[in-house]
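Consortium newsletter contribution from the modelling node. Members have asked for a concrete example of what our holo predictions look like. Here is one, prepared for the phenylalanine complex that several groups have been discussing at recent meetings.
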Amino acid sequence: MKTESNNQRGFWGSRMGFILAASGSAVGLGNIWKFPYIVGQNGGGAFVLIYLVCIFVIGTPIMLAEFTLGRKTNRNPVGAFDQLKPGSSWTGIGYMGVLAGFFILSFYGVVGGWTFAYVVKSITGSVLAFPSPKEAGEFFGNFIGNTGEVLFYHALFMGTCIAIVLRGIHGGIEKACDVLMPTLVVILFLLMLRSLTLDGAMEGLAFYLTPDFSKINANVILVALGQAFFSLSLGMGCMITYGSYLSDKENLTSCTVYVVIFDTLIALLVGMVIFPAVFAMGLEPTEGPGLVFSVLPTVFASMPMGHGVAVIFFILLAIAAITSGISLLEVVVAYFIDQRGWQRKKAVLIVGSAIFAFGIPSGLSFGVMADVKFLGMNFFDHIDNIASNYLLPLGGMLTAVFVGWVWGTKNAHEEIEKHENEFGFPWAQCWEFLIRYITPVAVGIVFIAKFFPH
Ligand code: PHE
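And here is the predicted structure:
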């Protein structure tokens, strides 16, 4: 029954709209900016394999669990846990999620701002003026250290997210993703064609696709797991929130499969754009976070049709960032609408501004605040670390325990099958087994390994 929904909440207009929006949340800077550089740093193909295992064995069951919680309760993460176990400390998972959303968007918005700036700078051609990644890296370093410019683009990015979320679920988020996600796919294919037809592209492809298992250790597995959570937008109630606007007749399992496959394909395709290009130009893939901002511009500069390619690449990056940024904002906004009874407009404006303000020190972390370090890390790195490496895996693990053991897979199963008998043998059994035993234990082990490094 949806009677408890208040009229500020909203709904998805169609199943396709929902899938595009949830995929929009999942496909983001995590896929295009982070995935290639951590593949580069962690040994290429072997890392990709471990990542795929994490996606299918751990990520997919949790995504289905989150959609189910959301649709069952029609609530934000806090409201969802509270409705199923009223007054219990399980609600804490919801609060952790809302906090993680706030934290992640605070630094995600900064990087989103960088992508906006690079769209402009690639149009004017200024990012393409360098013969080597060293100079391009210096240009990037100067830019992210420039207080005025960084804050301007950060504000522009947050303003864009606010403007979309203000228009609500159907009229704002869904409409935006309906246009932006297909655009993203087209752009990605164009880029891939260009990249794979460069001389020397195959060497990059080999690095990317040939596993070298000597590179695998506990830390690599940890990074792969964290990336799986981040990339699928799991562990913080984002998919609970998006699921909460879904009608009872939709098929939750097939939606989950579509979103996971879409997100994973995009990450893999991005690798096929970046590694062939990097190798073809004789550059190193181990560059780290600067890979797309300092290595790629050099690649574009020395590539036929490079100017146009650069512009569409950075537009791709900006689109991916927006469709994820709005989902992060929506989680926090939904909390204030559902739990505090705020109007959408008030919630979006206040929450959006607060996240922007809290993000300012992250924005300044590579400039005037670069020396403000605590335990060797700047503000940006701390917020990223707390949210991505602690709150998300912990949130994901506790969500699995909650659905597997507390609310129970029987109740979850009923919700999944509410409309039709869609979740049969052997998938239902397989999911139950994964969510009860494998997911919590696997995340637990990885966590312990993290605290007791050897
Ligand atoms: N999945 C997004 C990305 O890959 C980031 C994100 C994380 C979005 C958590 C929402 C929630 O960039």
